Amino acid sequence: MTAVLDHTIVPVKDQDESVEFYTRVLGFQYDGRAGMDDHFAVIRLNDSFTLDLQRFDVIPDPGIHYAFAMERDQFDRAFQAIKDSGIPFGDGPRDKTNMRGPGISTGAKGETLSVYFSDPSGHRLEIITYP
User: In the CATH hierarchy, which top-level class contains the domain 7-129?
Assistant: First the structure.
């Protein structure tokens, strides 16, 4: 049997701001509210994985790292949206604000093109595409 990641809870400062970021900048789909008392804002990445955004008063510093693998055209659109939005980005995990990119990195399936940046709650994000 193969195990796959089904969903993960992402602590956020502001759910509405985070929903707007993940849908507008990264092109993911907002699936509405879920959970007891609708405390999750659900962001769908594909047909089998969601980010469940949950409001927290305190976010771990320096946040959590999330890497999103995308087809090249989606990667290009997301990278353009990052630049158009004025979001600081970089070509490496230690240089996520040098305004250079994409850089070369290694993902689960090998070498990637990658861009590093932060979401509104301070999580360290990476978009990657495999050649």
Answer: alpha beta
